Inverse folding.
């Protein structure tokens, strides 16, 4: 994604709340001091924690800033901005953020998890629309059978995008739906199967067992599947989202995070906390309601959109 692109301009605009809260706060500290002293580091620590980077990540970053200032004999607080920018980009660049439906024997099977309200079903619909626009054949699997509205919502997306959906009656065994969806995807030769799963509260043990069972059923049909397990998190929930993620990773082999509603929060620093503490790459970000507002995550673009004037 080139910096001059329309999406970069939109990204910058949509991240304005985080830019004002996080980067605006950091710049305020830097401009408010004539030289680097302990007060600068303490104030930066406060700003980073407020922006939802989390205590652990913040402490590591501030320690690194202190060491770098000493090592490079920095005296002007403005010099800390470049160091912080580089550090954040390094954290966000870790891991493989790519997502590709490459030519393979059989479909790419993608399991999508996350609590209700995180934007999970909408993410599936948007992803299906984008993949189809790239010439890929897509199928949806409605394995969130616990909530009738979830199946209905996914059905609306399947009709809107024009892709087939495999679903059972309300309350059916989610693993059975996943099984049938995989069988149908294989027999019809589709490129990508996106399976929705129940988003009941992450504290429910039975939901986690259900997710493990779905994963096992899929793996028996296609060795190595699901090839991607995407966990959808709502950026506006901040540190709460991180706790949700930790619970889901206990049950699932999560390969990537989809961070939604970044346009609605001043605490976009949660992206850094997620990457640092979970070690799972962010693969997509949502910055608006439109289908095109779900975008592949690019650490360089994200940091540039926050820091550039």
């Amino acid at each position: 994604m080139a910096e001059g692109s329309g999406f970069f301009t939109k990204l910058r605009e949509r991240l304005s709340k985080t830019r004002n809260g996080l980067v605006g706060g950091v710049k305020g500290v830097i401009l408010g001091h004539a030289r680097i002293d302990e007060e600068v580091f303490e104030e930066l620590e406060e700003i980073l924690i407020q922006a939802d980077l989390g205590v652990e990540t913040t402490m590591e970053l501030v320690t690194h800033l202190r060491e770098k200032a000493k090592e490079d004999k920095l005296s002007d607080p403005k010099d800390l901005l470049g160091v912080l920018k580089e550090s954040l980009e390094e954290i966000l660049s870790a891991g493989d953020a790519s997502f590709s439906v490459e030519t393979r024997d059989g479909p790419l099977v993608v399991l999508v998890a996350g609590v209700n309200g995180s934007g999970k079903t909408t993410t599936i619909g948007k992803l299906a629309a984008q993949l189809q626009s790239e010439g890929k054949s897509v199928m949806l699997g409605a394995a969130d059978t616990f909530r009738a509205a979830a199946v209905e919502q996914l059905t609306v997306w399947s009709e809107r995008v024009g892709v087939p959906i495999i679903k059972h009656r309300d309350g059916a065994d989610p693993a059975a739906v996943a099984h049938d969806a995989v069988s149908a995807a294989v027999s019809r030769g589709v490129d990508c199967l996106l399976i929705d799963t129940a988003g009941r509260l992450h504290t429910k043990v039975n939901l986690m067992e259900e997710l493990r069972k779905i994963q096992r059923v899929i793996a028996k049909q296609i060795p190595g599947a699901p090839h991607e397990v995407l966990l959808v998190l709502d950026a506006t929930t901040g540190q709460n989202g991180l706790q949700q993620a930790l619970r889901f990773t206990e049950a699932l082999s999560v390969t990537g995070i989809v961070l939604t509603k970044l346009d609605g929060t001043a605490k976009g620093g949660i992206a850094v906390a997620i990457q640092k503490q979970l070690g799972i790459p962010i693969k997509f970000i949502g910055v608006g309601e439109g289908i095109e507002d779900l975008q592949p995550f690019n650490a360089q673009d994200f940091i540039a959109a926050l820091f550039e004037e």
Q: What stands out?
A: The first strand starts at residue 108 and ends at 113. The mean pLDDT is 92. The longest helix spans residues 55-71. DSSP finds twelve helices and eight strands in the chain.
